[in-house]
Amino acid sequence: MNTFVKVVARNSLVTLVSRLLVKVISFGFTIWIARTLGHEDFGRYALIWSFVTIFATFSDWGLGMYTIRELAKGNAENNHLAANVITFRLLLAGVTVLLILGAAQFTAYSSQRISHIILASTILFLYAVQDPLDSVLQANERVDISSLLRITGQLIFVGLGTLFLLAGWGITGLILAALCNVLVTTVLSWQTIRQKLGGLQWKIRPRLWLKLFTVAVPFGVIGFSLNWSQKIDTVVLSLYHTDTMIGWYNAAYSLILGVTIISNSLNVALFPSMSKENSLDNVATQKITARIFKYLFIASLPEAVGLIATRQQVINILYGPEFAPAVVPLAILAWSVPLLFVSEFLRYRALVMHRENEAAASILIAALVNIILNILFIPRYGLVAAATTTVITEALLVVLYLQKLKAEIPARIVVAEFWKPAAASALMLVIFILAAHLLLWAIVLGGLTYIGVLLLLGGLGLEEKALLQKFFKRLFPAVSHQL
User: Fold this and answer.
1) How far does Cα 340 stand from its chain's mean position?
2) Do 397 and 345 form a contact (C-beta atoms < 8 A)?
3) What spatial distance separates the first Cα and last Cα of the chain, rounded to whole Å?
4) Residue 280 has pLDDT above 60, yes or no
5) pLDDT (average), residues 131-147
6) DSSP 477
7) Fewer CB under 10 Å: which end of the chain, C or N?
């Protein structure tokens, strides 16, 4: 158990730091892209990748999550798995690109937009190789290398993207920069695996592909449903509203994705380690599940409140007055932050327990609700409908997950872990409202209020208090003994 915790802690820290760095770089670059392109072209750029993403699952078919879980077990019979996944995914990528081309022809998009979509879709061939290589690194718990390569690729994207934008290449230049990012990352991953892990064992078995397709169906459904839930709103917006509105909505949604990086980093780090530990000691993973669930609530609720309270300042500072209408969807989308934190963790937990069929069913139901609501209400209500539908879908997904995992996380634990940070967040919101004209002070006082109320309500256990005491001891030695 101690070894497992140490590995998880190491992987979580490395992944968290690296992904935070990547996210900061990426988000900063996204802001610059938005300011450089303007809200209309930024909307066009977001739509291109959204269109490709909703079909991308047919190229991946959920094999990324399946590969990590199976390779993490360390069975000799899986030695040829990665090579066969790469070969099979290249075939799927070809079929998917043809599917994207066909779908694009049925839209009312301009020839230039269709050309951009086709160019962007070629990235699926690169991901068909890069994703399985990254799965090999993660399964061998080399998230440090995986993280370094991710940072390198992001720097390449930012560097080339900047040069291409300054050269006047616009959206085309950004797509080419993204392709170069994945290409270089793929080459570096290949060389690293060959040097550090002895390379892949190439024994291509076409008969295995049918098995891969079959066993990965739940993972494919999960990926398909997630992609459609996250991107279909942008596509539907493009059919009824302007590119400008798409730009506003994606500016707000980018902020939501930015604050969920902590949850995503933790889950990415936990998945291979918990997959291995679960096959050896299921009790150990059950114990850590409730604790992580609690931490996710504690971390996510104040983030949501902070975004709601400072939405106007955040949009104005980061994007400028041109994106002022993004304040409305941001205020709504902020409520999805704690839901996203929890739903992603519950999904990974279900996969660790080999309950991917149940996870897939839950996500598929939520995705269908999402699609129906978007189609019904976006034509008339635009931004508000897109944002509200996202929150409703995530709430439904959390309920469905908890119902499936009620033996792991009983309702009493959910209630017990939720009300304390919720009460602390409510008082934090009051502080933000009272000190709205002093943003920096509002953030500091709001954060201290949240921690203080959480301590008073007993929302933090002995271990959490010990960590806080160490933290405050370094900052305020004179008052640390009061914790």
Assistant:
1) 9
2) no
3) 28
4) no
5) 77
6) T
7) N
Q: Considering only CA atoms, give the Rg of the chain.
A: 23
Rounded CA separation 82/384 (Å):
43
Predicted pLDDT at 107: 81
pTM of the model: 0.78
Q: What CA–CA distance (Å, rounded) separates 58 from 6?
A: 36
Q: Which of 376, 409, 442 is the last residue of a domain?
A: 409
Q: ∠ CA(195), CA(201), CA(202), 5° rounding?
A: 125
Which residue's entry shows tokens 């750029």? 45
Task: Residue 29: count other Cβ atoms within 10 Å of its Cβ.
Answer: 20
Residues 396-412 pLDDT 10s: 998 998 888 777 777 77
Which residues neighbour 160 within 8 Å (Cβ) at sequence distance 6 or greater?
A: 173, 176, 177, 180, 181
Instruction: Tell whether 69 and 179 lie within a shared domain.
Output: yes
pLDDT tier, 24 (very low <50, low <70, confident <90, very high otherwise): confident
Please give the tally of structural domains in the chain: 2
The Cα 439–Cα 436 span in angstroms is: 6
Structure tokens belonging to residue 141: 């718990």
Regarding whether 245 and 276 lie in a shared domain, the answer is: yes
Judge residue 168's burial from the number of C-beta atoms within 10 Å of its C-beta, 0-12 exposed, 13-18 middle, 19 or more buried.
exposed
The C-alpha atoms of residue 418 and residue 431 are separated, in whole angstroms, by 20
pLDDT tens column, 354-378: 777 888 888 889 999 999 999 999 9
Domain that residue 190 falls in: 2-409
Judge if 333 and 432 occupy the same domain.
no
Q: What is the pLDDT of residue 138?
A: 74
Residue 122 DSSP one-character state:
T
